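Both lines are quoted verbatim for reference:

——
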Amino acid sequence: MQQKTFDRAAEDLGNAIHLEHVNVTIPDQRIAALFYGAGLGLTRDPYMMVADTNMWMNVGRSQFHLPRGEPQVLRGHTGLVIPGRQTLLNRLTNMRKRLDGTKFDFSEHNDYVEAMCPWGNRYRCYEPDATRFGRIQLGIPYVEFDVPVGTAKGIANFYRQMIDVPAKVMNGDGTVARVTVGKQQYLMFRETDRPQPEYDEHHVQIYVVNFSGPHQRLGERGLVNREDNQYQYRFRDLVDLETGKHLFTIEHEVRSLTHPMCLRQLVNRNPDINNQNYAAGHDQLLWAMDLDQYDSQPDRRAITN
């Protein structure tokens, strides 16, 4: 019997295994709860950050961290996988009057719904799609940044060399860099000639397997900007490794796999459940598709039989 051959490289993640959270400050928890909770249908973490100084909103296995402060706006948008397009639209419609006077808005597109938070952050919400997002039923598959013209190639090279992750230039004309930071999770850097606001300190956190290697390489170039603790450090400036030219600024909180909260299990409620239609056993929404939804690789059945 002839052995099957497989593309083993297709399963390589590189050094980063998970994009856990996107952090932007917000001035009002009540307004944030209406948008992220009642509108998008996400879940406030019941265990961590329950005071009024910060709130963590769960999105599958990832989170939004929303400390209290002047509003920060990511230069680009965050991609979300949220099941149930029509129920999402219904929830967002119900927020129109309650979020009147803010920047809140939403619009329908062919394959996603774009929602703007009350302070201007943009989110593209997609239905689960195994061909695009793997088994993700609820989560953050990517964060896309608007970057200056001519920087995509250098940014991809920076992540490959400094963080040791797969990164490539896409889009035919080389204007988009895609960096792998987890299973079906990416950082996207799309070139634009539109003027961009100044960086306002928002950040994106990732877990890495080789924790000390990137730290040493970044440190040799003076790019480690903060030593948080034994399990965590930060860098923010992406530079051309050949010329030293500054390309883009986005702070990354880099955590080791020994971090006490690494891949902590998160609670995700089913936003379709309420006190009028309650059904026991359906309180929680799973982050991954079930077997009936996901079978893009027929050989999976053969492996389990």
